[in-house]
Amino acid sequence: MMRETISLQSARLPALVFGPGVVQQVGEKAAQWGQRVLLISASASFDRLEQRFGLLEILTQGDRVLVGHRRISVEPSPQQVDEIVTEFYSQQVEVVVAIGGGSVLDAAKCIAGLLPSGDSVMEYLEGVGRGGQYQGPSIPLIAVPTTAGTGSEASMNGVLSDRQQGFKKSFRHPALIPQLALIDPDLLVTSPPALIAANGCDALSQLLESYLSTQATPFTDSLALEAIARIGGGLIPLWESAGEDAAARSAVAYGAMISGITLANAGLGVVHGLAGPIGGLFPVPHGVVCGTLLGVANRTNIEALRERDPDSVALQKYCMIGKKMALCEPSKGRSRRLDQLSSGLMSLVEKLQIPRLREYGITESDIPRILQHSDQKANPVVLTEREFGGIVQARI
Ligand SMILES: [Fe+2]
Predict the structure, then answer these.
(1) Which residues of the chain have pLDDT under 70?
(2) Ligand 1 center–CA 150 separation, angstroms
(3) What is the spatial distance between Cα 210 and Cα 306, in angstroms, rounded to a whole number?
(4) Where are the domains of the chain?
(5) What is the Cα–Cα distance from 185 to 167, expressed in whole angstroms?
(6) Radius of gyration of the CA atoms of the chain, in A
(7) The architecture CATH gives domain 15-189
(8) pLDDT tens digits, 343-356
(9) Distance 145 CA to ligand 1 centre (A)
(10) Residue 177 near residue 39, CB atoms below 8 Å
(11) Mean pLDDT across the chain, nearest whole number?
């Protein structure tokens, strides 16, 4: 028996329906809440899915009415959310269905949360809003993720961006957690390989960060570790097969779903502490930022822990990650295994051809501004300014 006391609390989860083909159930599931459906989707990627899966037909079978279908841009803005809320406020929407990546799901959470009142999201956006206290309720939301990345389907926040004012901020409330998440790994077949790579790295990083978090619990650890093993085994085959490998699709989609649950319950670390501001200040997709920082951020953590906290639980956890991802030789000593994990994660980022930050116009002179807006969240070791900035520098 492990001699420790356990305390934890869990965020509410959506009902989860996971498996190949479950997208076919979206219409009948929506009918639990009503017949008047508002569909929120992406643009081009939705058309590829529509062609392959006939989503509009599934949604409108029986007595169901599509009150509207609105498409969300890559980085949704508060203005876009407000326009859709104003348009549909008086149209008796009974259920919102969101089909898309993290941006679409985030925007849909905001829209579903504001439709009952017609309020502007600027009333509630943290840090930059007017500081209103959101009370809910939200219109029931069904989240259908089409990328395996953010895990947004399981969380309570909708991230919105205003590029002109340079912010990326959340509208956050437990009432925004979707009622139901339908996660169909088959939807990944239309994802381009570069998107599979970036989003998969985002999910993997979310798992590693929440597993290593100072707020991790046995509950989140057991979920995260198993998912790390699956995504660790599935990501390269999924990318190499351009989404065609069915077992890899399942493994990566499962890992992404679990990453949403573990991040909501254990928090994140330095990769996401940097990804927020970098994504707010520069036009870099979230998955690319997380992917590009993944290797070097963990190498920096491992080195800092070896130097300042060599007996830490976090280093034991790093060894476990190396084992689960099959990046270390189990017969080697701990120091060698940690080296193998560091270089294994760096090689993964190289192999997946994750772009460097300079490709998005970021230069060394931007580092102070990035650090000013960054925090280390629940990272297992407090990095010095030099170490923290060094992570960004190494990927420019
Ligand atoms: Fe993320």
Answers:
(1) 1
(2) 5
(3) 20
(4) 15-189, 192-394
(5) 32
(6) 21
(7) 3-Layer(aba) Sandwich (3.40)
(8) 999 999 999 999 99
(9) 14
(10) no
(11) 95
How far does residue 180's CA lie from ligand 1's centre (Å)?
Answer: 20
Q: Which of 217, 311, 270 is nearest to 395 (CA)?
A: 270
Alpha-carbon distance 364 to 355, whole Å?
16
Specify the DSSP class assigned to residue 89: T
127: tokens are 């840090």
pLDDT of residue 310: 97
Tell me what pLDDT residue 1 has.
62
Rounded to an integer, what is the distance from CA 274 to the centroid of its chain?
14
Compute, in angstroms, the gap from residue 259 CA to the centroid of ligand 1: 9
Residues in a beta bridge with 183 = 18
What's the gap in Å between 330 CA and the centre of ligand 1?
A: 30
- Please give the distance, rounded to the nearest whole angstrom, from the Cα atom of residue 384 to the centre of ligand 1: 23
How many A from CA of 206 to the centre of ligand 1? Answer: 6
CA of 142 to the centre of ligand 1 (A): 20
- Please give the distance, rounded to the nearest whole angstrom, from the Cα atom of residue 292 to the centre of ligand 1: 12
Q: Which amino acid is at 26?
A: V
Q: Report the separation in Å between the CA atom of 232 and the middle of ligand 1, taken as the mean of its atom positions.
A: 16
Class for domain 192-394, per CATH? mainly alpha
